[in-house]
Amino acid sequence: MKCVILVTLAIFATNCEIINKSVIRNVRFFGGLHVKEEIRIIMLNNGTQSVDHFRYWLDPNVVNFIVKFSGENGTLTHETTTEAPDEFRVNLQSNFKPGHVLKVVVNLISFGQVVPVQNTLMGPHQSVVYRGNVGFYSGYKTSIATSSFTLKPEGMKALQISPSPLYQLEGSVEYITKNISPLSLTRLTVAYQDNTPLITILSLKRLITVSHFGKIFVSDQVSVKNEGRFNSSFPYMNVNNFDWWWYTHLPATADDVGYFDELGNSSKSTLLHYKNYKTLKFQPRYPLLNGWKTSYVIRYSVPSVHYLWNHVDEFSLKMRAVDHIFDDVLIKDAIVKVLLPEGATIINVTLPGLFTKFDVGQSTFGRPQIIFGAKSVFESFEDFHIQYFLPKYYLLKTPLLIVLSLECLFVIFITAYWV
C-alpha cells in the first residue's frame, strides 16, 4: 500500500511540473466517420528541473487515430508509453527548462467519436452523433482551453448539442473552459445531419507481381461497407442510398486498368486522365444501402522502370504499400503480398511505420514472396523498399522455355504429319 501511494505521488509530482497555460482546439467534421483536429498548446515548465519530453493523452472515445506532433523547430517524435496505449511520450529536440514556455501543435485524425444513429427527428436524412470533450483531456492541469467545433452548413441546420455552447457562429460552435483538472472530462454530444456515404473499407488485399519484362502488375481486392443507419420505415427512399460514383486515383503511368465485381467485369466504369495521375470512375452494380457490404477488384499495370532499379545483379523495388482507395476513409485491415521473379534472393525489406512483416518465403509457384500488413490505415501513402539479388541469366529462362516449347510442338506436328 505504501509503495502504491509513493508511486501515485511521484506521478502526480511529475504531472505538476508542466502546466498547459493555453490550449486552442479546432475540431472539424465535414462528413464521414473521422474527425480532424488541430490543437495548439502553450506549456509552462513549473518545476525545478529540465525535461526532455512531455506526455500527451488521447480522449477515451478515440478508437483509431493518426497523430503528429510539431514544435517550433519541426516535427517531434513520439512513442506509446507502457502504461496505456492512449498515452504518448513526445520527445523534445532540446531540454524544456524551468520557467520556460513550449509551443506545440498536435494534428490528430481520429475514429470512434462519430457514430451513425437512428434519429426520427432528422426525417429521411442520415443522423450521426459526435461524442467528445468540451475542454481538453490531459494529465496536466490546463489553465484555459478554447474549443471550436466546425460542421458543414447542412449539419448546422439540424444541430442538437449538449451542453449549450458559449458562442454559436455561422458553421461552428465554441466553448471556453478554465482551470481544468488533470484527466478530467466534460462530455460533449453533438447530433447533426450528414448525408455523405459513411464508408469503411473492411479489408484491402493488395497483390504486387514484379516482372523484369517491363511491367509490374497490381491487383487491389477491396471489401467496403456502408456504416449508415436508417431513419425511416422505407430505407430504400433514403437520399444517401441512391447510386453514387466512386473515384480511385491511380498512378499516371497506370495501364490496362480493369474494374471487376463478384459477377465479373462491370461496364459502369471510365478512366479519367490528368497530368499527374489517373482516376478510375466507377459505380457498384447495385446501390450500397445502409448497412450493406460489397467487394470489388481493381487491376492495372505500371512500367517497372519507374519503380525498379538495379546495380549489376542487385535490384531495388520501391512502391506504395497502400495507394489511394477513397478520400478520407479508414482501412481496417490491409494485407500486401509482393511476388518477386523466380530465382530471386531477398536481401533486405524496409516497411512503412504502420506495417509489420507477416511472412517471407515462396509462393506455390516457387516465386519468392513477402507478405506484410497493418490495421487501421488512413491516408498512409508511404513506400516499402525491397532489395533482392537475381542473376541475369535467370531472365533467359522464360524466353528459352517458350522457344523449347514451340520447338517441341513443331517436332511433334511434323512427326505426326509424316507418320
TrEMBL record:
The chain crosses the membrane at residues 400-418. Belongs to the OST1 family. It is a single-pass type I membrane protein. Subunit of the oligosaccharyl transferase (OST) complex that catalyzes the initial transfer of a defined glycan (Glc(3)Man(9)GlcNAc(2) in eukaryotes) from the lipid carrier dolichol-pyrophosphate to an asparagine residue within an Asn-X-Ser/Thr consensus motif in nascent polypeptide chains, the first step in protein N-glycosylation. N-glycosylation occurs cotranslationally and the complex associates with the Sec61 complex at the channel-forming translocon complex that mediates protein translocation across the endoplasmic reticulum (ER). All subunits are required for a maximal enzyme activity. Pathway: Protein modification; protein glycosylation. Component of the oligosaccharyltransferase (OST) complex. GO terms for biological process: protein N-linked glycosylation via asparagine. Its main location: endoplasmic reticulum. Residues 1-18 form the signal peptide. GO terms for cellular component: oligosaccharyltransferase complex. It is found in: Endoplasmic reticulum membrane. This is Dolichyl-diphosphooligosaccharide--protein glycosyltransferase subunit 1. Keywords: Endoplasmic reticulum, Membrane, Signal, Transmembrane, Transmembrane helix. It comes from Photinus pyralis. The lineage of its organism: Eukaryota, Metazoa, Ecdysozoa, Arthropoda, Hexapoda.
